[in-house]
Amino acid sequence: MRSTLAATFAVAIVLIASAIAVVALQRRALVEAIDASLVARANDVSAMISAGTLSERLTVSGGDDTLLQVVDDHGVVVAESDDVEGTTPVSGIRPDPDSVVAVNAMLPGDDDRFRLVALGASSGERRFTVYSAATLEAVDSAAGALIALLSVGVPVLIAGVGLTVWLIVGRTLRPVEEIRSEVASITEEELHRRVPVPEVDDEIGRLASTMNQMLSRLEVSSQQQRRFVADASHELRSPLAAIRSQLEVDLAHPDSANLERTHAEVLDETLRLQRLVEALLLLARSDAGALASSRGTVDVDDVVLEQVRGLIPTPDVAIDATAVTGAQVAASTDELAFVIRNVLENAARYAQSRVEVALVAEDGMAKLTIDDDGPGIADQDRDRVFERFTRLDEARDRAHGGAGLGLAIARDITHHLRGAIEVERSPLGGARFIVSLPVNGA
Fold first, then answer.
1. pLDDT of 328-359, one tens digit each?
2. Is 195 exposed, middle or buried (0-12, 13-18, 19+ CB in 10 A)?
3. pTM reported for the whole predicted model
4. Which of left, alpha, beta for 296 (phi over 0: left; psi -120 to 50: alpha)?
């Protein structure tokens, strides 16, 4: 309605202004034609005055609608047409010789409006004024007819424009209303639904496509969230169930209970539970965009060497960190340590006998490379390994207490630090993880 009213109002203003201009131009054209005719008659009379052949009676065509009159410089009528015989001068205008003045006037004894042309003329020393006049009745009649026509045509045209705009805008905005009603009816359980996309590739069509893309992202996000909640619940249930079963067995059979073994197993499960909770909290912070925003200058080589020293020894696996050189990045020490620790633990977990760690600063990036000689990661799994709760080797990963969150969180933290983490085949035969971070000041 607002669009229709605005468009109709604008068109109405233009049409009304155009109608007024058309009437004015028509009237002007008709008056100019009358002026040309009157000036021609006045020139004819002026020629007679100059030639000395002026008679007292002037003959004009057009009957009562036209007149001629000649007045000398004393205001005495010296010649006139029959329709103004015996009248006083029709006007007091006295132009100079060969000058012309054209005005609208009311002539004595006549109620009609006339167009009057006054032409200055001379004969020797004597000066005269030639008046040539014609009624404006034809001009007023033509203008009135045009005004009557426009008075009917313009409102009809405005109404037609308003109706056309209403139909076009309504047809154009109908898909928007369909999109709105469809989106309004989509619930959290129906994110698979999509809005209708118009066949025409215009702004509304692109809006519908963008809306469907957003719904697709929401559907994926909802599925990930539900899977995350389910996986997290399952992971939390496992250590709690192990702790409960150990305690219940000891309480049911106190005589055969091995408290030392129970304490050790409960402690292991508690530590596993603590690591899982910490990982889930860090993951929640990452999803909320609440990772550490305060960053200081961190010596990456110090963090790497500290994590290598703190790594729980794995039988028959040697860790070589001799290729670690100095590099500094702007980061949070705790989050950077988390990234390095998880990649190191992953390499040590699957290595057969050797893990090599290298750090070098080049091209504005601190590049940490961790190689192992384990089974490696298949090409099709190199992106999936960074997904949450992903285990490429389910049984072995559970035996090591992993929940499939470490690499996912490491990737989130790395991206937060404007870096990247990727995996490829290692020259040692296993997997090579590469963590790249911009050096401080880059």
1. 998 888 888 888 988 998 899 889 999 999 99
2. buried
3. 0.49
4. beta
